[in-house]
Structures
1.
Amino acid sequence: MNSENQKNEINRRKFLQNTTLAAAGIYLGILGTPKLFGNVLMDKDAKGIPDVKLNNGLKMPILGFGTYGLSGEVCQKSVVEAISSGYRLIDTAKVYGNEVEVGKAIKQSGIDRKQLFVTSKLWVDDAGYENAKKGFEETLRKLQLDYLDLYLIHRPRGDVKGSWKAMEELYKAGKIKAIGISNFDPAQLADLLSYAQVKPVVNQIETHAYYQQTNDYKVLKQDNIQMQAWAPFAEGRNGLFTNEVLTQIAKKHGKTTAQVSLRWHFQRGIVAIPRSSQKTHILENLNIFDFKLDDNDMKAIEKLDLNRTQFPEWS
Ligand SMILES: NC(=O)c1ccc[n+]([C@@H]2O[C@H](COP(=O)([O-])OP(=O)(O)OC[C@H]3O[C@@H](n4cnc5c(N)ncnc54)[C@H](OP(=O)(O)O)[C@@H]3O)[C@@H](O)[C@H]2O)c1
C-alpha cells in the first residue's frame, strides 16, 4: 500500500472507530459512570474513552496503550494500529528501547499531536538532577516530540530528590504537562511528598485481579493522585485469561476475560494501559464501554486478590 492509500485507510478506520466509540459513549450514559477515583471528574470526549482529570487539571484518557516488550517494526505497526483504532494515551519508557519506533508511529499516524497523551519514564541509570535533565532530552529527541504529556520516575532508585527537582523544573518550563511516579509504595510516596514542590499526578503500579493493591488504592485516593495499572492483565500470568471466575463473568456479559479485566479497572476508576501486538486484541481491549459489571461481579473479582506481585523477578 502506498503512503497516500495508507493514510486514507487510517482515516477511514479512525472514522469507523470514532463512530463506534461515540455510540459506546452513549451506552456509558445509560449504564452509568464508574465510581470516581478520589475527587477526579470523569469526562467523556468524542472518542468515547472517558478522561480522568489529574490533580493539576490535565485530562488523561482512562484507557491507553502499553508498549513494554514491543520493538522494531512490530512496535511501530502496533502503535499505528492503536492510534488509528482510537487509543490516544501511549505509554513508553526509555528502558523499553522503543521510543524511536513509538515516535515514528506517532508521525506515521498523521494524528494531531495535541490529541495524543504521550507518557515516558526516567530510567534508574538517569537518576539525579543533571542526569534526569539529559535523560529527558534524549527521550524527547528519540520520540521526535517537543513536549511530553506525562513523565514518570520509573522506579524509586538512586537520587530521587534530584530527579524530582529536575522534573519540576521541566514541568514549570512547559516541557512536560504533568509529572508523576511509578512503583512507589506509600512510604516512598510520603517521603517524596515531604519535599516536593509539585505533587505527582500519577503513580503507575502493578495492578490486576491477582494484585489489587487495596492499600495503595486508598492512600492514592486520599492524596488525590491518580492510580494507573501496569500489567492490567498480569501479562496473562497465573492463567488470568482462563481464570474460571473471570470466564463465568465474561460469558454472562457476552465479553472476553480481557474485557472483563479492563472493565473492572475502569469501574475502580483506574487508568489501564493494556499492551497488544495483535489487531483483534487492540480492538477488543477498547470495547469495554457498552456493559457494566454488577456488584456480584465486582465482589467475585475482589476475591481473586492474592495480594502479591506476579512479577517477583522485578522486585
Ligand atoms: N511502570 C512499570 O514499571 C511498568 C512495568 C510493566 C509494564 N508497564 C506498562 O504497562 C503496560 C501493560 O503491561 P504489560 O505489557 O506488561 O502486560 P499486559 O498489558 O498485562 O499484558 C500484555 C499481554 O496480554 C496479551 N493480550 C493483550 N490483549 C489481549 C486480549 N484481548 N486477549 C488475550 N491476550 C491479550 C498480549 O499478547 P498479544 O500481543 O498477543 O495481544 C500480551 O502478551 C506495558 O506495556 C507498559 O507500557 C509499566
2.
Amino acid sequence: MEGTRPLEGAEGSEPPAEVGDDKIPSVRIFDKRPRSRDFDREIFPSEGGYLVEFSNQGGKHHENPNPPNLRKRRMTCLVSEDGGCENVTDNQTGLCSDHNYKKGRPRVILIHWADWIGRIIPPGRRREDCLTWAPAHLSIIERFVVWTQSEEEQRQPRLKKLDGFVSDLMSTIKGNTPDSTTLQRDLESSSGAMAAQVVSNAREVVNRNFPSEEYASVSVGDWSYKPRELDESVKLGSVPIRTMAALLFLGVASEEANRGDLWTYLQCGRRQEEAKRASVYMPMAYYYLRAHLGATKNMATQSVRQPGSRSLA
Ligand SMILES: [Zn+2]
C-alpha cells in the first residue's frame, strides 16, 4: 500500500515495519489542506518549442516522511490539525501519548502540502493543457541511455558527458533540496525563495554541462510521454537535450522533495546517516545499472523498486 512506510528509528511511536494493522484506517493529516499559492516557473525560454517548468501543481500528494519535531521542542500534538487534540508533546513524531503508534491504534500519516514536479510543455500546448505532465525520472534516464547507445562511435563520449552531468546534479540536489511541505510553506508565508532556488540550480547545472552555444541544436531524438489523464501517449519529436537535462534535474529534485528526508535531518544538525530514505540515490542507481553495468530495463527497474515509488512510465 502506498504511503504507509513507517518512520523507522523515530522513537516512541513508530510501528514495526511489518505490522499487520492495515485493517485499521490510517489518520491522514493535511490530506485535504488547500494550497493557497501556485508556483510555475520555466527553467529557460522555449527551446525547440519545448518548455520545462518547476511547479507545485502535480496534484498527487505524497506521504511526508520527515519527522516533524526532530528538535524535540514542545508542540501541540499533530492530531490537533484534523482531530482537535490539544495535548502537548516533545516526541519527534509530533504525536502525543494518546496518538502515537501502538498496536491496535490507527497509524497517523502526514501528507505533504503540495506535489512538486518538473513539467514538460510540448510545442503547441499551453500550460493549462499539461498541468500535471511530469515524466518519471526513470523514463527520462531511459531515453538518455538509449541516446548513448544509438551511435557506437559516440557511445563513450556521450557516456562521459552524462556521467559528469548526473554527478553534478547529485551533488547539487543532495541535502540541498527542502521537502515539499517546506517548499510550499515558504511559498505561502514568504517569497517562495526556496522554490526559486531549485529553478536557479536546475538552470545552472544544465548550462554548466550542456551550454547553449554547444548544445542548443542537439537532440536526444524522438520520445513519447503518456500523461495519466490521457489514454494514449503524446509523441514528442526531436526533444532538445537541454530540455531532457532540465527535466531530469527537476524530476530528481522533485523526488527528493516529495519522498526524501535528508534536508530535514541536516537542517536539524543531524548526520546524513540518520536519514531514512534513499530518495535521490534511487534514480542514480538506475542510471548506473543501465548505462554502465549492462542491466536491462526490466532488471534495473526491479533493482530500484521501492515502496510507493512512481512506476517507470
Ligand atoms: Zn494527540
